[in-house]
Amino acid sequence: MKKYLLDLTVVSNERLSDRHILLKLTSPAALPEMIPGQFVEVRIDHSPSTFLRRPISINYVDRSRNELWLLVALVGDGTRTLAGLGSGDVVNCLLPLGNGFTLPSSSDESLLLVGGGVGIAPLLFFGREAKDRGARVSFLLGARTASELLELDLFKNLGNVYVTTEDGSAGERGFVTNHSVLSREVFTRISMCGPTPMMKAVAAYARKTGTACEASLENMMACGLGACLCCVEKTTEGNLRVCQDGPVFDIQKLLW
Ligand SMILES: Cc1cc2nc3c(=O)[nH]c(=O)nc-3n(C[C@H](O)[C@H](O)[C@H](O)COP(=O)(O)OP(=O)(O)OC[C@H]3O[C@@H](n4cnc5c(N)ncnc54)[C@H](O)[C@@H]3O)c2cc1C
Ligand code: FES
Question: Residue 73's beta-bridge partner residues?
Answer without folding.
Answer: 20
